From TrEMBL, chain A:
<dbReference type="InterPro" id="IPR058548">
    <property type="entry name" value="MlaB-like_STAS"/>
</dbReference>
<feature type="transmembrane region" description="Helical">
    <location>
        <begin position="136"/>
        <end position="152"/>
    </location>
</feature>
<feature type="domain" description="STAS">
    <location>
        <begin position="8"/>
        <end position="98"/>
    </location>
</feature>
<dbReference type="InterPro" id="IPR003453">
    <property type="entry name" value="ABC_MlaE_roteobac"/>
</dbReference>
<keyword id="KW-0472">Membrane</keyword>
<keyword id="KW-1003">Cell membrane</keyword>
<dbReference type="InterPro" id="IPR030802">
    <property type="entry name" value="Permease_MalE"/>
</dbReference>
<keyword id="KW-0812">Transmembrane</keyword>
<dbReference type="InterPro" id="IPR036513">
    <property type="entry name" value="STAS_dom_sf"/>
</dbReference>
Automatic annotation (TrEMBL), chain B:
<dbReference type="InterPro" id="IPR027417">
    <property type="entry name" value="P-loop_NTPase"/>
</dbReference>
<dbReference type="GO" id="GO:0016887">
    <property type="term" value="F:ATP hydrolysis activity"/>
</dbReference>
<dbReference type="InterPro" id="IPR017871">
    <property type="entry name" value="ABC_transporter-like_CS"/>
</dbReference>
<dbReference type="InterPro" id="IPR003439">
    <property type="entry name" value="ABC_transporter-like_ATP-bd"/>
</dbReference>
<dbReference type="Pfam" id="PF00005">
    <property type="entry name" value="ABC_tran"/>
</dbReference>
<dbReference type="InterPro" id="IPR003593">
    <property type="entry name" value="AAA+_ATPase"/>
</dbReference>
<dbReference type="GO" id="GO:0005524">
    <property type="term" value="F:ATP binding"/>
</dbReference>
<keyword id="KW-0547">Nucleotide-binding</keyword>
<protein>
    <submittedName>
        <fullName>Phospholipid/cholesterol/gamma-HCH transport system ATP-binding protein</fullName>
    </submittedName>
</protein>
Length: 379, 266
């Protein structure tokens, strides 16, 4: 064991039935890295008496002090007598401080392992989702009540904030929404034209693009882009204010966070979303007409004539009906997740991600429900 | 971490002619400071005099417009290369703890230990529990996330992490602010114990006059974009108006008139 000689910081000897540990040199974390295992093994040896001679120590840090104390304590726990000799007074305080009151205190967060872990995780997730659903409904109700209050006393509406939000969520989103819908319109018309050409029905490409863009693509793309752009911004803005205790400051001034922070965003998005949808529809149809012009030799006027015959008002109307509902969902989820932020900056990121995922999920689920409902009532 | 080598001679920190500017505002103008090994030095100064900036300059986070800094014999380069060479030899306690929020307190303390490599996991766990109790936190704080701790507890956890590798030099940015008086005086004791056992060098920015009086060997005052260093007695006799009002204000008298003052001058 002790085979290095003079430089060895730990010298083990048996002396008259006692195990003597002679320590020398600097007992620091660097030394303990090598000695830790040997010391643990030493403390497990069946001995009656353990003597630690510390005259030779020239340096001691808390890691070294802990190793000495642990060795003594472990030997005592096994019923051995222990003695610490020759410790310099300079090292006494650090040894006295090297105490671990609860050696079983957890260091890492509890990790769930084993066969039941996925089951437990699934159960937790379901309960969590139910919880979020209930709280979101509660938040919706509370926001409606506040909205009612503002409608009765309209001067309480923060007009400047609302208009600023309309600019941020609507006006600034025009380029990206327009570009994406234009491109999707091109893709849709192109794929449709290729397939329909096979049985000479290529003129029906216009019907396909018209109905698909007006009913689904326009509103759905607009809603998903807004959820990614603005839903996340709502969560991050409000969440950061929550972390900085700005929301608490509002409350102590007697201001309602929902009235000051949520309502302007909600109202702005409900106004802006139908407008964005019209814009998205137009861009999608324009994409379709470009393909029609180059692939089907259909002039712009011919495209419009065919479009007029192909779509009814309700193809456009269903998209418009969905827009304010999706706006409501996106704004509510974004603001709700923002207000759920607590503690650290890390949770701002977590809830922002969650806001985007939840609102896109809800938008698509609602879209499916709308499709069924519209089919039932025949529009 | 000190390693097997005996401590080298020479000053722990040497700051020569440091000039720091933010835009057109000059914070430090040719500032000199020498910190001896094993010394506890307090840095004081009015708001905006660049106390924290000075600490950041010394540890290599803030590049000054001019000047030179030597930390533990290494010339600080402000491009990360010297920080690597000095890894583990100094620790820094930031004002709000600056704990990694995704890790528990225990894991935070283990970050520098993991970096240095080769330490058995069991020993790392024990040492992180030890540091937690060393700074006066309850044992269960070890498994908690920073967001679950109060401001004062975060500060202690930050200190535990700064002490993780038993560094030669620790920099403390307002360590006792936000601690209750008992906690603050325990903390002072802890610093003295660590210095006695390890020859720890401590640079602390503080406004805690009790700490200054009890544990600081010398005090560095940032005035007129430069630094005035002296023992408590020397500075008390200074004629500079800011230093005079600092050391002769009512709070200062209350702190310095106590018998503990004698102990600080040992």
């Amino acid at each position: 064991m002790a085979d290095i000689g003079v430089a060895d910081p730990l010298d083990l000897r048996e002396e008259g039935g006692a195990l003597v540990l002679r320590l020398s040199g600097r007992w620091t974390l660097d030394t303990m890295r090598r000695l830790d295992r040997e010391l643990r093994a030493t403390a497990r040896r069946p001995i009656h008496r353990l003597v630690v001679e510390a005259e030779g120590l020239t340096g001691l840090d808390s890691a070294g002090a802990w190793a000495i104390r642990r060795t003594l304590e472990q030997a005592e726990a096994r019923g051995a007598e222990t003695e610490l000799r020759g410790l310099s007074d300079a090292y006494r305080p650090i040894l006295d401080k090297a105490v671990v009151p609860d050696p079983r205190a957890p260091v890492a967060p509890p990790s769930r392992t084993g066969l039941l872990a996925p089951l437990e995780g699934a159960g937790r997730a379901v309960l969590h989702a139910a919880h979020v659903g209930r709280n979101l409904a509660g938040f919706f109700g509370y926001t409606l009540v506040t909205l009612g209050g503002v409608l009765v006393r309209p001067w309480r509406l923060r007009v400047t904030a609302t208009v600023a939000q309309m600019e941020a969520t609507g006006l600034n989103a025009l380029p990206i929404v327009g570009l994406l819908c234009f491109l999707v319109g091109i893709v849709l018309a192109y794929m449709g034209a290729l397939q329909l050409k096979q049985f000479g029905a290529d003129i029906l490409t216009v019907n396909l693009v018209g109905v698909a863009v007006l009913r689904e693509i326009g509103i759905l793309l607009a809603a998903i882009i807004v959820a990614g752009r603005s839903g996340s911004a709502f969560a991050a803005q409000i969440g950061t204010m929550k972390v900085n205790q700005e929301v608490d400051a509002l409350e102590t001034m007697g201001l309602s966070a929902v009235e000051v922070l949520v309502l302007p965003r909600l109202i702005a998005l409900i106004i802006v979303m139908p407008l964005l949808t019209v814009w998205a529809d137009a861009a999608g149809l324009l994409g379709g007409s470009v393909v029609a012009l180059f692939l089907l030799d259909l002039s712009f006027a011919q495209f419009l004539t065919q479009l007029k015959a192909a779509v009814s008002f309700w193809d456009f109307g269903t998209g418009m009906l969905k827009a304010p509902v999706f706006a409501l969902v996106i704004a509510l989820v974004g603001c709700y997740d923002g207000l759920r932020v607590s503690g650290s900056a890390e949770s701002v990121g977590r809830y922002t991600t969650r806001a985007v995922v939840e609102s896109i999920f809800l938008v698509i689920v609602l879209d499916a429900l709308f499709a069924v409902a519209f089919a039932e009532i025949g529009i | 971490m000190t390693g097997a080598a005996p401590p080298q001679d020479g000053p722990a920190i040497e700051v020569r002619g440091v000039v720091t500017r933010f835009g057109t505002t000059t914070i430090h103008d040719g500032l000199d400071l020498t910190v001896k090994r094993g010394e506890i030095i307090g840095v004081v100064g009015g708001s905006g005099t660049g106390k924290t900036v000075l600490l950041r300059t010394i540890i290599g986070l803030q590049k000054p417009a001019d000047g030179e800094v030597t930390l533990l014999g290494e010339t600080v380069a402000w491009d990360g290369s010297s920080t690597e060479a000095l890894a583990g030899r100094f620790g820094m306690l930031f004002q709000d703890g600056a704990l990694f929020s995704a890790l528990t307190v225990g894991q935070n303390i283990q970050v520098p230990m993991r970096e240095c490599g080769g330490i058995p996991p069991q020993l790392m766990d024990e040492l992180s529990r030890l540091k937690v109790s060393l700074v006066g936190l309850p044992p269960d704080a070890c498994g908690k996330f920073p967001s679950e701790l109060s401001g004062g507890m975060k500060k202690r956890a930050g200190l535990a992490r700064a002490l993780a590798l038993d560094p030669d030099v620790v920099f403390l940015d307002e360590p006792t602010a936000g601690l209750d008086p008992i906690g603050a005086s325990d903390f002072d004791e802890l610093i003295l114990d660590l210095r006695r056992a390890l020859g720890l060098t401590v640079v602390m920015v503080t406004h805690d006059l009790d700490s200054l009086a009890r544990i600081c060997d010398r005090i560095a005052v940032l005035v007129d974009k430069k630094i005035v260093v002296g023992t408590m007695e020397e500075l008390t006799g200074s004629q500079h108006p800011w230093i005079r009002s600092y050391f002769h204000g009512p709070r200062a008298r209350a702190a310095f008139d106590r018998p503990a003052l004698a102990g600080a001058q040992e």
